[in-house]
TrEMBL record:
Record keywords: Coiled coil, DNA-binding, Endonuclease, Hydrolase, Nuclease, Restriction system
InterPro entries registered for this protein in UniProt: Restrct_endonuc_typeI_TRD, Restrct_endonuc_typeI_TRD_sf, Type-I_RS_S_subunit
Family: Belongs to the type-I restriction system S methylase family.
Segments forming domain Type I restriction modification DNA specificity: 5-181, 239-384
Keyword DNA-binding among record annotations: yes
CDD domains xrefs: RMtype1_S_MjaORF132P-TRD1-CR1_like (cd17275)
Residue ranges of the TM segments: none
Stretches of the chain forming a coiled coil according to its record: 371-398
Single biological process term from Gene Ontology: DNA restriction-modification system
Protein name: Restriction endonuclease subunit S
GO MF, one annotated term: DNA binding
């Protein structure tokens, strides 16, 4: 830890708390234990909460509480995950019980501000490995948590630091809500537009459900000039190259994403195995991860067998096909047709025989544009969230070390 201001101290966590205790799990074989109204916190409740925990998926009875090592944690306590998903933090807004993977920490508010402690525990989340017991799964134990070293400013400065960081948290939470609302809006739009279209009043029953009377249905093979997949085998890798070997994990929200783990190949290997990909191509993951999609934009990539490519003909727009393949109807069909046990696979035969609803081209364009607008809004919100997260990261670095005083 870098040099701190003279009026700051370094303390162990145990010096600034009044109580720290983990919970327990009532016997799962006793169904009556799980018919009560006491919120019972598991790790996924914390990981899915946005700072404040206001509800849980599971509830237990008074009897379950009395017959196990679980205890009733009062409202306004820090809940800290110690097993598997390490270092997640929440503040409970209602009395709860917790399982043994969660430590409840009650701060001594005459020494440390609750929000300041919350922010400190968030800050060390990515540095937690040095405290971890390396077993089959990563765990912390209570003794190590008690010995966490905390930089401790005067109480009033703690409150100011926490207030600044909490303000950024509120902005992140607000954007999170906007993202969630936009995703729900997009889901509703997809369901409506891909089954009802735009402005239709007459409908008909079909093999894929109720659709507008003027729409056709055809199998994907009839809407493409070529459907195929990538290399069945392993190419020769090289250290540095502008050519890449990609699989389904590289398909990410319309784009081909090249990561640090993406392998390079030589130009010769690329030319030997490349497929006919062009401006009409849509890519789909068909092995392991099923249903990820991207457009091909002249990237210098060689496909692995986990990617199918579809070159559309003039009867369907690639943008419309992209959204249709993301629809719940198509995904359900894919899931029913998967083969394999350990690694799931979608065959090219299944893909070629997939039934696609087919509006007139102009309507396809309108539907794709509406859904693309929703996607653009989502992308902008995600960028906005990332900028707030970067701002907070910088503020934490300066405020929690005393580099900037408040």
């Amino acid at each position: 830890m870098s040099k701190l201001p003279d009026d700051w101290k370094i303390v162990n966590l145990e010096e600034v708390i009044t109580k720290m205790r983990s919970g327990g799990t009532p016997k799962s074989t006793n169904e009556e234990y799980y018919k009560g109204n006491i919120p019972f916190v598991k790790i996924d409740d914390i990981t899915s909460s946005n700072k404040f925990l206001i509800e849980t998926k599971t509830k237990i009875s008074e009897e379950a509480l009395n017959d196990s090592s679980a205890w009733l944690v009062p409202e306004g306590v820090i809940l800290y995950s110690m097993y598997a998903s390490l270092g997640f933090v929440a503040i409970n807004k209602l009395p709860v019980a917790t399982n043994q993977a969660i430590m409840s920490i009650i701060p001594d508010t005459s020494k440390i501000d609750m929000e300041y402690l919350y922010q400190f525990l968030l800050d060390i989340k990515n540095k937690i490995d040095k405290f971890v017991d390396q077993t089959t799964q990563k765990n912390l134990n209570a003794q190590k948590v008690r010995k966490f070293k905390i930089p401790l400013p005067p109480l009033q400065e703690q409150k100011k630091i926490a207030e600044i960081l909490s303000t950024v948290d509120q902005k992140i939470a607000f954007v999170d809500n906007q993202i969630e609302e936009t995703e729900l809006l997009k889901k509703g739009l997809m369901q409506k537009l891909l089954t009802e279209g735009i402005g239709h009043t007459e409908f008909k029953d079909s093999e894929i459900g109720r659709i507008p009377k003027s729409w056709d249905i055809d199998i994907l093979e009839e809407l493409t000039t070529k459907i195929g997949d990538g290399l069945h085998g392993t190419p020769k890798y090289v250290e540095n190259s502008e050519y890449y070997f990609i699989n389904g994990n590289n398909l990410n929200s319309k784009i081909i994403e090249i990561t640090d783990n993406t392998k390079c190949i030589s130009k010769e290997e690329y030319l030997k195995n490349k497929k006919v990909l062009n401006e009409t191509t849509v890519l789909l993951s068909i092995n392991g991860t099923i249903g990820s999609l991207a457009y091909f934009n002249n990237e210098k990539v060689m496909l692995g067998k986990s990617i199918a490519y579809m070159n559309v003909n003039d009867r369907i727009l690639k943008q419309f096909l992209f959204y249709t393949l993301k629809s719940s109807t198509i995904l359900r069909y894919f899931l029913l047709e998967l083969t394999g046990t350990t690694i799931r696979n979608l065959s090219l035969k299944t893909l070629r025989n997939t039934k696609i609803p087919l509006p007139p081209l102009e309507e396809q364009k309108q539907i794709a544009e509406i859904l693309s607008t929703a996607d653009e809004k989502l992308e902008n919100l995600k960028v906005k969230k990332e900028s707030f997260e970067e701002l907070k990261k910088g503020l934490m670095q300066k405020l929690l070390t005393g580099e900037v005083r408040v």
